[in-house]
Amino acid sequence: MPRLSRPIRIALSACALALAGLWSHGAEAQTRIKDITQVEGIRDNVLVGYGLVVGLNGTGDDLDDSPFTRESLIGMLQRLGVNARTEDNSLETENIAAVMVTADLPPFARRGSRIDVSVSSLGTAESLLGGTLLVTPLLGADGEVYAVSQGPVNVNGFTVGGAAQEITKGVPTSGRIPNGAIIEREIDFQLGSLSTVHLQLRNPDLTTARRVARAINQFVGQSAARSLDPATVRIDVPENYGGDTVGLLTDVEQLPISPDQVAKVVIDESSGVIVMGANVRISTVAIAQGNLTIRVTETPQVAQPGPFAQQGRTAVVPRTEIEVDEESENRMAVLPEGVTLQQLVDGLNALGVGPRDMIAILHAIKASGALQAKIEVL
């Protein structure tokens, strides 16, 4: 029997998995393996460096308050053959600023290619607008130089002011240099020579990891994938791929699966934001929400004597109105066992519950043991 081509196998596998998903998981959303996993070893690396920005229009560091800027300037000039050291250290300039330069080195970046860098002021500079970053080596975590940065700094913010008022828009003490660094050292990672690869789940889950392994095994027609833990799926490159690891990963990442998730309620009490997962369930519980509200309104009135009265004077007469609202319109609601997220939200909205009160209610339901979900407070 002739061997099917990879595109045909991908299409057949996708159809089979889609039918299996409709049969076993109902209307659960299908997601590509590519969108929920990443290949172990394919990652960015952070770079950092210290440099000087010159050409500022009097908005740079005060050398008296920023000794590191002074010493960096003197050292740079000495390397260029200029002796800037004096007995009284009377070095005055406001057109230079010490900065930290950061960048992300992408995976498989080759020598000679360029990456973007971010520049942030380190001293007392007021703005980096119009400045130019001088040659700055960018170091990795191992202390080696992986890139060299230089170029004009693009600043989105600005500061304009006079003697009595000053307006600042954005952050003028930080900026970016597009394609501002040249890669000088590569990180050696031979993906194509690997006989075993590991997929890392972005949201670790035992069920999801097992579904990923099953989808891969069904696609390749053998037991090549195995879930090691909730976050890792190991794949042994099948022999029929002839050592083409990249080709295997290209085929695998397009396979659709239905990710599982833990029932969780995420609450941000500072902003009143509540996010509830679809698997949140509630046991039988009765909910009542209401507060005693007393409103006191003062409406003073002016009393005057009648026309042509022999006696009397104008006076302010107090008028006080008191309203007591016990929220008698609200009733206790009973939520039956196993209600869904939509039913929970509809029930709380029917009580007129706002986000702040809803947070308190969810905590109370969890304390009673009726909320079958994890509450995570940000």
From TrEMBL:
Signal peptide: 1-29
Keywords: Bacterial flagellum, Cell projection, Cilium, Flagellum, Periplasm, Signal
InterPro entries: Flag_FlgI (IPR001782)
Keyword Signal in annotation: yes
Pfam families found in the cross-reference section: FlgI
Keyword Signal on entry: yes
Highest rank taxon of the organism: Bacteria
Transmembrane segments: none
Primary location: other
Subcellular localization, as worded in the UniProt entry: Bacterial flagellum basal body
NCBIfam families, per database record: PRK05303.1
Assembly: The basal body constitutes a major portion of the flagellar organelle and consists of four rings (L,P,S, and M) mounted on a central rod.
Function in brief: Assembles around the rod to form the L-ring and probably protects the motor/basal body from shearing forces during rotation.
HAMAP family in UniProt: FlgI
Family, as annotated: Belongs to the FlgI family.
Protein name, per record: Flagellar P-ring protein
